[in-house]
Specification:
This protein has about 525 residues and is mainly beta. It has six helices and 27 strands. The strands form three sheets. It has a 17-stranded mixed β-sheet that branches. Strand 20 and strand 21 form a beta hairpin. Helix 5 packs antiparallel against helix 6.
Length: about 525
């Protein structure tokens, strides 16, 4: 079974039916409060807790301080400061109130708020790094506020490791015109538990990319909430998770579109192997009546590597106005395909290596957008070392590998060419998603060795063509099967009727350069 086409999930592998798709109330009606007493102890029957093993989290939901702390290590570029603030100052910062009991307990008993300030108009060449490590399994309450000043440009990496029962609130406030990437990595020991609420507040014309990577911990549950304070804001929520036997990894998102002319794009991918491995993804998007001109899309994909693993995926979309640019969602869960494994092995690739390549390719489109090379390489290496098992194998032969567009400084300005990547960063045959001068494109190497570049978005559905299948000089959209000629951009198969833009490619030595066309 291929993940690249709409499919019916295998029994027991995926939950996506009427009972999961119809919420009992509007997402906007859920309680938010600074008072722990406003959130009763969950029983597991509540909508927001029904997938979570709450019977194992009693100590973390208790309304009491512990006095315990994690070990902090930080690397701060020049101009960035790390200080403290009171809970009252945090409430006045514009960050949202807690949305469940775990977050309310963490906010009430953290003992104060660590505040990371990025100055206005700062452009950081190196990422801010914070590493939190637990020495023993005890309940710890944490609270971090990240403030990005007006028109600043920065990347913040927050890593979690060691042993702990960690409950946290992470508040991110991006001022007008700022561009901020926040990467959170959960690499806990197997017995650790982590409950988190991540709030992202996006100012006018600001852009925030929030990336959640969960590969360790017995129970990890991260609630990410995005909201807008003015028009023109952009939110990108990306996630990667890999669950082994006995792990529960849960990611919930709520994108609250309350301001006009804002956009959001959510893409989470997960892989599971081992008995009782369980992942949960819930994506809620609310477009309020005031949010005219909204453009939003969310996507979740899960790759089941062995029997006994379960992935629950629940996309929800509420729309209160018809005056929008676009809104949609997609969810797919599938297993390795024996025929595809045979295909790869018949071309001389050993079975273990073929399985690892599939997992790397599956995650590459998200990992490639993290923007911190050493983090990307570490995650891809770790994913490769987890040996996928089970009866099936690779879901796609020409799977997309993501490469981040880069090097405006290296562009051939006299002829309008921009360096995108090295040739060896492209798959031997396949596509790579790239961002060139703010435009998302797909760079494709066909089986005859030619390299083409086209717009990455299907003109029929707002999905990535680089994740589709190649057939000679034709790329097929994985969602509805639209086909496009890579040489002309013309649609060669329904349902698409509008062509995609084709860009000029030039190879200089080992580098690939692209000149963007003026087509939209």
């Amino acid at each position: 079974m291929s993940l690249l086409t709409p499919q019916r999930p295998a029994e027991g592998a995926h939950t996506h039916d009427a009972t999961t798709l119809v919420p009992s109330q509007s997402r906007a009606e859920r309680t938010t409060s600074y008072a722990v007493a406003d959130f009763p102890l969950p029983t597991g029957r509540e909508e927001e807790w029904r997938f979570t093993p709450v019977d194992r989290l009693g100590a973390m939901l208790r309304d009491a301080p512990t006095g315990a702390c994690l070990e902090w290590a930080q690397d701060l570029p020049d101009g960035v400061t790390l200080g403290t603030a009171s809970v009252e100052e945090w409430r006045a910062s514009g960050a949202p109130a807690p949305a469940d009991r775990a977050a309310a307990v963490a906010a009430a008993h953290s003992g104060g708020v660590a505040v990371l300030d990025i100055p206005a108009e700062a452009e950081l060449d190196t990422p801010v790094r914070i590493r939190l490590t637990g020495a023993e399994r005890e309940v710890v309450h944490g609270h971090l506020l990240v403030r990005a000043g007006r028109f600043s440009r920065a990347t913040v990496v927050v890593e979690h490791a060691g042993a702990s029962e960690y409950s946290e609130v992470l508040s991110v406030v991006a001022a007008d015109g700022s561009e901020l990437t926040v990467v959170t990595i959960q690499e806990w020991d197997d017995e650790s538990h982590h409950l988190a609420q991540h709030d992202v507040v996006i100012g006018r014309d600001a852009s925030v990319r929030h990336i959640a990577v969960s590969i360790g911990g017995g129970i990890v549950r991260i609630n990410t909430n995005a909201s807008y304070t003015g028009p023109g804001g952009s939110f990108e929520g990306l996630g990667v998770y890999f669950a082994d036997a006995g792990q529960h990894l849960e990611h919930r998102l709520f994108v609250d579109h309350g301001a006009p002319h804002c956009r959001s794009n959510v893409e989470y991918k997960g892989a599971l192997q081992g008995d009782t491995a369980h992942t949960v993804w819930v994506g809620d998007v609310l477009i309020r009546a005031s949010a005219e001109g909204t453009d939003t899309y969310e996507l979740n994909r899960n790759l089941i590597l062995t029997e006994g693993a379960r992935a629950d995926s629940v996309p929800n979309l509420e729309i209160e106005t018809g005056e929008i640019v676009g809104a949609g969602h997609a969810s797919a869960t599938g297993r390795f395909d024996d025929q595809q494994l045979f295909y790869l092995m018949a071309r001389g690739i050993p079975e273990d290596e073929a399985r690892r390549l599939v997992v790397r390719g599956f995650f590459a489109s998200v990992v490639g957008r993290i923007g911190v090379r050493e983090v990307q390489e570490r995650l891809m290496q770790r994913g490769s070392h987890r040996r996928p098992g089970g009866a099936g194998a690779a879901h796609a032969v020409h799977r997309a590998r993501a490469v981040r567009g880069r090097a405006v400084s290296e562009q051939l300005t006299d002829r309008g060419f921009i360096r995108v990547c090295r040739l060896d960063e492209l798959p031997a045959v396949g596509a790579a998603a790239a961002e060139v001068d703010g435009r998302r494109v797909s760079v494709v190497r066909t089986d005859d060795g030619d390299v083409h570049c086209v717009d990455d978005t299907c003109t029929h559905a707002n999905v990535s063509l680089s994740e589709g299948e190649l057939d000679g000089c034709t790329v097929e959209c994985w969602l509805h099967g639209s086909r496009f000629d890579l040489r002309t951009g013309e649609p060669t198969g329904p349902p698409a009727v509008i062509p995609i833009a084709v860009h000029t490619v030039r190879i200089e030595g080992d580098d690939v350069y692209v000149a963007l066309s003026e087509e939209s």
